[in-house]
Design goal:
Layout (H helix, E strand, L loop, with lengths): L1 H25 L3 H30 L30 E3 L6 E3 H7 L4 E3 L6 E3 L13 H10 L2
Antiparallel strand pairs: 1-2, 3-4
């Protein structure tokens, strides 16, 4: 009799757990939606708090001469990258992974190749440079975007 009672209690607990689990994750209950909304709001708050610390730190200038950090500037022309000026967009050379601005790439281009001004490796591309699929360095692009806000 005790074994049967234990089995019934265990079965009821499994049922209650499964019911609670399905309500929590199915989205069919108002409580589940409220819980999910609170979780999302908490995550958004954490992201905002981190942005409040990270963005100002990234926006700080070097103390020596009030210039932007080197990695926020083109390695060829030393101009700061920009998210608003097309020729200052940071692009990654596929042949070596160096980042230089689109303006410098346009100055360096030859038919179907660009030779990296830093390491002299070639990056090949098909047709014209605008359709080359050359990747934007989105880390630098995003930081330069946040600096202009």
């Amino acid at each position: 009799m005790k074994d049967q009672a234990k089995k019934l209690r265990a079965a009821k607990e499994r049922f209650d757990f499964k019911k609670g689990f399905s309500v929590l994750y199915s989205g069919s209950s108002e409580n589940a939606r409220k819980i999910k909304t609170r979780e999302v709001e908490a995550l958004n708050k954490k992201v905002d708090e981190q942005d409040d610390v990270i963005v100002p730190a990234l926006n700080k200038k070097e103390k020596k001469n009030d210039q932007p950090f080197e990695w926020l500037c083109c390695e060829k022309c030393s101009e700061p990258f920009s998210n608003t000026e097309t020729d200052r967009i940071p692009k990654v050379l596929d042949g070596c992974d160096h980042t230089i601005c689109l303006g410098c790439i346009m100055d360096l281009k030859r038919p179907h190749i660009v030779i990296c001004p830093i390491c002299k490796k070639m990056t090949r591309f098909k047709e014209n440079l605008s359709n080359s699929g050359m990747k934007t360095n989105f880390t630098v692009f995003e930081i330069s975007r946040r600096q202009t806000l």
